[in-house]
């Protein structure tokens, strides 16, 4: 079941609460997918592979390619089903908290913008240069380097501190940030002088300002969010705190862009997003360039880490399943290193990935949508100006849909009932026209990292680790970083 509910806007509209049949939504999405082109890049495509569908270009570029018109789909699926598809044009606008409004420079990024011309143009840029199939092919070298670096760091840990726990997050997060910076500005910036802050920042400080501080700011609660009719009451404390985060982010982004401009002026162009935005997209303002460039940096650095860390936690907790994955990998790779090409050949890995997304959906609630016109979902009337939240966590913990949903069980995606190639099964990446643009990159990085780390090391939890499973943050971060005991597997 997909739980969809509408939250009363400004106390004008009565609360509407309802359940919408998820299987019918999925069927509607399936029907749509059948008419959509396959992704242009998947390292190897075969049945049972966690293939990664991208939003089709046509959908992104033309308003006429809006999801099927209601009348035609209404005929093929129950009218209460396609909350995310047929009614999409009515509910594709985002509703933001005060903190998010400031942090996103009033919706100046793909993930948060309304579904308008700016959104389409910005998403096209992001897919063309960073996240689409061909772009990911061009950025492959960065992901390969990331895997080598991670492996080297874990090996070094075993050599230098064989008896100590390894902090998974510390290693993974830093390498993931390196990938995001290479894609965005063409290199890992070890340090940079930031004029506005009158200081030189290290790589870790840059990460803090561009990623960590903003993720914390995103969940800052302004009580006026809950009482919109009191929004005129000043709440300077929160506003100033968030504004300060934005000012620091802006200062760092300015420094990065200015460095890129100097490099380009010397004729040293690189295959990276900043070069593309500066040279190809003439209509953008400086502020827009800065925000659009920052977007994949923060998005790359977060949800993929969340997913990979939870997967490694579950595997470390469960030696039998870890061993099964290891055996499957070995039968495919032998003495070769696990790479992106092997993802498709190890269906159990697809099960591990999807089951982790199901149990620990990084975005447990799809960022709020706003009905900008009267619409109807599930036979219920949704008045204009209602907010709509789609509760992915609720769906994925629904006992009627999933047997023992609290259990982490990758096999459930291999029993023939759930297709491991179906990214929509858990809806962790959302669905419809605003489906996650980074699902390809996230799948490639998470699956390759899990495969490689299980191939090379045996993972065990330290005593007490099982109890520390709380979550925190805008995405469902594990409250405490995963600390595990790792041992080398024999070659
Ligand atoms: C496991 C990792 C990830 C998960 C679970 C995830 C999940 C989501 C979800 C739930 C949405 C909202 C979809 C909707 O409103 O229907 C979304 C949107 C988006 N995500 Fe992701 N995401 C992940 C990784 C990434 C990465 C790595 C990037 C980019 C580097 C990215 C970029 C985006 C963008 C640009 C959007 C907005 C798409 C639009 O509004 O058209 N995501 N993601």
Automatic annotation (TrEMBL):
Binding positions for heme per the UniProt entry: 436
SUPFAM superfamilies reported in the protein's UniProt record: Cytochrome P450
Region feature Disordered, mapped onto this chain: 31-54
Gene Ontology biological-process entries: ent-kaurene oxidation to kaurenoic acid; gibberellin biosynthetic process
Known cofactor(s): heme
Protein family according to the UniProt entry: Belongs to the cytochrome P450 family.
Alphabetical list of CDD domains matching this protein: CYP77_89 (cd11075)
Name used for this protein in its record: Ent-kaurene oxidase
Localization of this protein: Membrane
Keyword Transit peptide: no
Principal location listed in the UniProt entry: membrane
Coiled-coil regions, chain positions: none
Biased amino acid composition, Low complexity: 35-54
MF GO annotations: ent-kaurene oxidase activity; heme binding; iron ion binding; oxidoreductase activity, acting on paired donors, with incorporation or reduction of molecular oxygen, NAD(P)H as one donor, and incorporation of one atom of oxygen
Topology of this chain in the membrane: Single-pass membrane protein
Keywords carried by this UniProt record: Heme, Iron, Membrane, Metal-binding, Monooxygenase, Oxidoreductase, Transmembrane, Transmembrane helix
Superkingdom of the organism of origin: Eukaryota
A single Gene Ontology CC term: chloroplast outer membrane
